[in-house]
Amino acid sequence: MRISDTTVPRIAEYARNGRVVVFDTETTGCSRWDEICQIAAAEYVGGTLTRTFNVYVCPTCEMNPWAEKIHGLSLDFLAGHGLAPEEAMRRFFAFLGNDTLLVAHNNKFDMRMLAQECGKFDLCFDPEGLSCAIRLRSPAICGRGWRVTHSQN
What we know:
By secondary structure, this protein is of the alpha/beta class. It has a single domain (7-152), classed as Ribonuclease H-like superfamily/Ribonuclease H (Nucleotidyltransferase, domain 5). It is built from five helices and seven strands; from the N terminus they run H-E-E-E-H-H-H-E-H-E-E-E. The protein has helices spanning 7-17, 65-71, 75-81, 85-96, 107-120, and strands at 19-27, 36-45, 48-56, 101-104, 123-125, 131-132, 150-152. The strands form two sheets. It has a five-stranded mixed sheet. A two-stranded antiparallel ribbon has the order 5-7. 26% of the residues are buried.
């Protein structure tokens, strides 16, 4: 994804006047066999923080030791505090709503992990586009200013 001089101002304008959800996932590792163990998000409307979302997910696979060192979430903690993966995904989609500029911390990784989870439960998450918060090595909104819609079967 290439960022032009006009892209960031266009997204910033949408962020000031529209609805933006910034999210991040924590996972049991980075492979295609790993799973999401936390989803956190913040909703901004007209540039003002309006809601937050956080859900722990009880994974069905082992936790990679280095992943646990990064995020501090153990399988024991998740077993006591986590939701079933399908329920967690449905709650996240309900939080997202429609017509939202979606900004991921690391869009390639986060979207791959979301797609993996959706595939397990026949959930459809078909973003028209996504922005990436680390492209400019800044928490600022950056990337393409597309909107995301989703549907649930």
